[in-house]
Amino acid sequence: MSTLTLVGTAVGSVLLLLFLVMKARMHAFVALMLVSIAAGIFSGMPLDRIADTMQKGMGDTLGFLAIVVALGAMFGKILHEVGALDQIAAQLLKRFGKSKAHYALGIAGLICALPLFFDVAVVLLIGIVFAVARRTDGNIVKLAIPLFAGVAAAASFLLPGPVPMLLASQMKADFGWMIAIGLVAAVVGMLIAGPLYGSFISRYVNWPMPADENEPALGKGNLPSFGFSLALVLCPLVLVGMKTIGARLVTPGSQLQQWLEFIGHPFTAILLACLIVIYGLAKPRGMTNEQTLAICSAAVQPAGIILLMTGAGGVFKQILVDSGVGPALGDAMIGTGLPIAVAAFALSAMVRVIQGSATVACLTTVGLVLPVTSQLGLGGGQLAALAICIAGGSIVLSHVNDAGFWLFGKFTGANELQTLKTWTVMETLLGSVGGIIGMIAFTMF
Description:
This protein is mainly α. The protein contains 20 helices and no strands.
């Protein structure tokens, strides 16, 4: 089948997905399944291969992510229940002072969102914005934008977040380099898109505080110390980082290297962190076995739909790869003369704008660029840089087809036009800065 036909199939598939989700109001999971089948048929894929490819895409995606998401959800929920996240936020505010509260909120969002899903982090942390606004008589926009920028930066660029973890596993990138490059992208992006842009746009856009918001009980009760709380949040990152750093300092193939590889694997790292927070923090604070079980069960329930959507995106990705659509579109994009890092960012941004989901944009783009990266023989560090480029493109120009757009408006009280001026521009700045840092990192390998 000609390249033009395959490229047309890719574009048509994304447009069909947009129509089914936005106009026909079909559930995104069902829409992704239908679009995957349609893409396989119109690309000329043998009918007996379509179902097998769909199964492979679902299994390859969830085989890794399901464990990470389930353990990460439990980890984050228990941290919240014992007050560790509240302690981090409260201490940052105390140390930064009222005049720098917007910087404190950005850092709080960045740190506290590490073990949480984006929407869960927003739900758990948004009350801090209103509490600070009451105490400082602050501008809601100036405070909310940094918090959301920090949460979005952590969800997009930092391990062990589901999206960057998914990208690293699908791209077979080096996890250590993902942490290093992602950390730079997240911090720089958060500062520019959060406190700096928030301070600017708050001069022109603002809205009153929602009347039904109650101040969270920060600082009350026997909260864990700030240092211990921060150490727990960073624990999975440290364990994963030890593997990458230790692998370069110990003898290859030695027993020590094998242990570092085992402990630093994301499965083991998050499991150990989860056990530490349960038995090192929750239990000593008097949490019973029944309470712990209830919290863990409640934590994994919201993850179900996220896993289904992610798996469906993996199905679509695999169809694009195995049908030849991915290689054709990837080659066409590379054929324009764009460097691979720029092309990866542009492809991800294009899919994001059309269909809304950052996760689906990432998975779709991986399916489009993997054939090209295989031909180029890129290393783990280069693949990590490309993964950051894809993550950056996947969050730009968020608008009405993105759940985050409505989440921001719902929790802050902004209308649609105000959300476009604040949330949409913030996401675009964050994604663009992250993408540029990924491109710079790619050139350095």
